[in-house]
Structure formats: C-alpha cells, structure tokens
C-alpha cells in the first residue's frame, strides 16, 4: 500500500478521510506520492490548535525562535538535492532550478532566524509633560497561508519563516497540485522544535480548505499568493469576516522587458530567454512582453529565435534539460488556447508553440515567440503563465516606457540599455514594484522586499525586513511616569 502523506495538526499526523495522487508532469505514469485531502473539520482543528498555541509562542524567547529556524535552515541546506528533486518531480522545474529553489528556502529560514532577534521598537517623546511613548510590534495571531503551485517550497518558506520568527502561529494550505515540498518543509520545521500547534498543515482543495480558512473567525490574517481571480475572492472574504482579517495578496503579472537600440544584444537575449522561458515561463515575474525599439528589433528577434532553438525541452530530472514540462494538462490547455488567440488576433507566431512528445508521457510545450504584437491584444494584456512571449515594437524609449506601463499589472519590469539616462529614467518612472536593469525580470534576492503594484499585489510587501509590516501589529503605549 502507498504511504499517504498526512496533514499535521496539533502536533500529530492525522489520518485523512481522502487522499489524492501527486503526479509528475514530466511522466504522468509516476505518482510522486499520495497526499491527504483535508476537510473543513481538519481546518477547524488546525485553527483551534494554532489558537491555543499562540499565547505561549507569541511570548516565547526570540532565542528559541532563532534556534528552530536555524535548525530548519540547516536541514533544508543539508537535504537540498533531495528536496530539489522532489520539487522537480512534482512541479516540473529542471533539477538545477529545483535545487536552487530548495537552497533559497534554506537561505530565507536563516535570514528570518536573525530577524527574530532583531525585532525592535521605538521610544518617542510625548507632547504632554511627563509622558513617555513606546511603539512596539506584536505578533498578529493565527495566520492562514494559501500558496500557489509554481514555487512549491520558496513561497511557503517566505511566508512561514517571518510568521514564525515574529511569534505568530500558522495553518498553511499549499497548492493542491504540489503539496509535497510544503509538506516536507513543515515537517522539517516541526522536527526542529516548534511546540505543538504552532505550525499546522492542511492540504486539499482551495474551495474546501481554503474557503473554510477564509471564513474562520479565529484566523487573524491571510497571506495569499495565486491568481488575481482567487485573490479578489480572498480579499472580499477577509473584509466580510467578523472580525475583519488582515490580508496580503501577491498575484499575477504581465511583466515588460524593454530592449533599447543601444542595448548589448547578448545581454538582452539572455535576459529575455531567461525571463520569458526558464521555469517553463511559470513565474509571476516572467517577461511575457518584450518591448523592442525599431533599430534593434530584427536583430533581437533573430538572435532570440536562435537562442530558443537551442533550448532543450524535456524531463525535468534529465541532465541537459533547460525547460521542463508545463505543470498539468489544464495549464497546457491554457497556453495552447492563448497561442490560438494570438494567431486569431493577427500576431505572427514567429517560432515554437508546438506540443512535444518525449520518452515519457508529460505536458511538453516548445517555447513560443510572437512578433507583430500590439499592446492591446489579449496575449499582451492577460497573464498566460506559460513559455509564451510577445514582442511589441516601439518607436523609441518614450513609447517603450508608455507601453511597459500600459497594463493592469505592476509586479516586475526590466530594461536592457547601456544608457545611464534611460536606465535611471526607467527606474523612476516604471509603474512596477520591482525594476531590473540589464537583468531578467524574474530572479530576486531574499533579503529585500518583494511585491508589486496595481493588479499584481495588495497589502504590505513580502520578504526581507519589510515582512514585519504584515506579520506584526503595532502597539503605541503611553505612560505617565
Ligand atoms: P490559484 O489562484 O488558482 O490558486 C492559489 C491558491 O489558492 C491554491 O492553493 C488554491 O487551492 C487556492 N484557492 C483556490 N480557490 C480558493 C478559494 N475559493 N478560497 C481559498 N483558496 C482558494 O493560483 P495558481 O494557479 O496556484 O498559481 C498561479 C498564479 O499565482 C499566477 O497568477 C501567478 O502569477 C501567481 N503567483 C504570484 C506570485 C507573486 O508573488 N506575485 C508568485 C507566484 C505565483
């Protein structure tokens, strides 16, 4: 009989009523594992446990929180190849990408171990004689986390680490498609010494477990990463609940990479290939719009096409694979649907976009490049979330900047140029939360804020010291001495 990975609630593994297979998108004959499908009752039990654990954990010695997070970081680092392989098998990222993401999770845990010790406050003079003011930060309470499938270990890590460092207790519901990496991370953190009930995992459907989390009155805050459509529902439910919940949403993107005439061609091609197609284009920060000025347009398209021809699409675990499969049949269907939409809208499918067969049954798609795209076409406006990029021609820098900002999203934006003037102007005038110069739009550091503007994000930033804005609440205390 296959082992079922069970939910972990109140310090115990709980036998589930139901379980579902976690399939390898590189080889759908391979079941990565059977994972519990939690119920509303499981969610309620997890919230009750987290609520009970909160008073002690929120007042715990920061040295204890540091020790737990560092121990977990050390285990993640020691097991990064194995965790990376699990991630690649369940999500379809290449093995080096999987190991890189597992390493990132370890780095995040050690960063926030230090943050547990650095939480400080302020002493302020009052306008009233003899009165002193202290501004301090306290844990928020039980935090509910809902995560997407495209970063199965890094996103759980960048939510769990600050939540725990600042003294919150947690219930996490990972994406139904990829529960394995989050399960492994929760197991590592619990074995690193978290008291019972501090960290609970309930796997299962968003419409069941996620919805119950949003409706539960004892969940004080929700940190969500996923699509705009689900994000809207999450925010609405948080506001409708009594008491209202604090909420943080990280959602989609339609990230522009501007390539100017004066760009170094090799740098621009590398930024575009990496940003648009690596991780199968399944990154919220993917460069899905390549906005290229007249003078370099044709040379850029030719060179990028040559680069694409050299990209090996195959089993994520195979040495030499550059691009793994799409995550599942439904996402592959969405990618193909947009390729058809692009053609119908009059864009030119310049290269790629074919479904591919490999040794094992999987969801393989050749990266696709559209040219002759206008920014009003659906392929330039809607998030596709696959290895599909659209080249939009611009007359000059000013028009390129205007096109880059003409989107309902605002997560990441990039520019390739050798001009300090344009680079500086773009950094100041881009309407994105993260701006890259001569770098891919995807790929960030873990010790600085991550997040966007407009339709991409809602609420305080994640990561780095800025994470405390969401995971703590401020108290202002007045004392007459
Ligand atoms: P999704 O919105 O379909 O699902 C995200 C999570 O929400 C899953 O755990 C899902 O089970 C849950 N969910 C679904 N319905 C729910 C409901 N009614 N109530 C509560 N929870 C519910 O997104 P996805 O397909 O897993 O991920 C892809 C999306 O995530 C893309 O749009 C991508 O851009 C975005 N993303 C954003 C960032 C960022 O930081 N901005 C990072 C990664 C991914």
UniProtKB/TrEMBL annotation:
One of its GO terms (molecular function) is oxidoreductase activity, acting on the aldehyde or oxo group of donors, NAD or NADP as acceptor. CDD domains: ALDH_KGSADH-YcbD (cd07097). The active site is at 250. PROSITE patterns: ALDEHYDE_DEHYDR_CYS, ALDEHYDE_DEHYDR_GLU. Belongs to the aldehyde dehydrogenase family. This is Aldehyde dehydrogenase family protein. Keywords: Oxidation, Oxidoreductase. Residues 19-476 form the Aldehyde dehydrogenase domain. Pfam families: Aldedh. The keyword Transcription regulation does not apply.
């Amino acid at each position: 009989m296959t082992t079922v990975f069970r939910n972990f609630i109140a310090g115990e593994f709980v036998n589930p009523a139901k379980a579902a297979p976690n399939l390898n998108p590189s080889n759908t004959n391979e079941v990565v594992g059977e994972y519990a499908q939690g119920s509303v009752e499981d969610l309620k039990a997890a919230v009750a446990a987290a609520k009970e654990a909160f008073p002690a954990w929120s007042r715990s010695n920061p040295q204890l929180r540091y020790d737990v997070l560092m121990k977990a970081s050390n285990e993640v680092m020691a097991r990064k190849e194995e965790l990376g392989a699990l991630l690649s098998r369940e999500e379809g990222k290449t093995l080096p990408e999987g190991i890189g993401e597992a390493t990132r999770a370890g780095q995040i845990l050690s960063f926030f171990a230090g943050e547990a010790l650095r939480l400080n406050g302020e002493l302020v003079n009052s306008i009233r004689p003899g009165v002193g003011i202290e501004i301090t930060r306290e844990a928020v309470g039980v935090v509910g986390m809902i995560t997407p499938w495209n970063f199965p270990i890094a996103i759980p890590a960048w939510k769990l680490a600050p939540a725990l460092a600042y003294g919150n207790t947690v219930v996490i519901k990972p994406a139904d498609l990829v529960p394995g990496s989050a399960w492994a991370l929760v197991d590592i953190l619990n074995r690193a010494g978290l008291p019972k009930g501090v960290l609970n995992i309930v796997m299962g459907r968003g419409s069941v477990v996620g919805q119950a989390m949003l409706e539960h009155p004892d969940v004080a805050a929700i940190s969500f990463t996923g699509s705009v459509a689900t994000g809207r529902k999450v925010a609405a439910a948080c506001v409708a609940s009594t008491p209202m919940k604090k909420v943080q949403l990280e959602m989609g993107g339609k990230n522009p990479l501007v390539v100017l005439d004066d760009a170094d061609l090799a740098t621009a091609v590398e930024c575009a290939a990496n940003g648009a197609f690596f991780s199968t284009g399944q990154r919220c920060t993917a460069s899905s719009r390549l906005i290229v000025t007249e003078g370099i347009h044709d040379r850029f398209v030719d060179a990028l096409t040559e680069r694409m021809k050299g990209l090996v699409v195959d089993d994520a675990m195979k040495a030499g694979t550059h691009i793994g499969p799409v995550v599942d049949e439904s996402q592959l269907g969405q990618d193909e649907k947009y390729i058809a939409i692009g053609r119908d809208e009059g864009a030119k499918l310049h290269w790629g976009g074919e479904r591919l067969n490999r040794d094992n049954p999987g969801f393989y798609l050749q990266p696709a490049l559209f040219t002759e795209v206008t920014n009003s076409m659906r392929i330039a406006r809607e998030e596709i979330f696959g290895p599909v990029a659209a080249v939009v021609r611009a007359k000059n820098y000013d028009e390129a900047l205007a096109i880059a900002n003409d989107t309902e999203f605002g997560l990441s934006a990039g520019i390739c140029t050798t001009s300090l003037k344009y680079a500086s102007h773009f950094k100041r005038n881009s309407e994105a939360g993260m701006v890259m110069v001569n770098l891919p739009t995807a790929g960030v550091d873990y010790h600085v804020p991550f997040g966007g503007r407009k339709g991409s994000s809602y609420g305080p930033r994640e990561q780095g010291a800025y994470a405390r804005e969401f995971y703590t609440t401020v108290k202002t205390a007045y004392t007459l001495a």
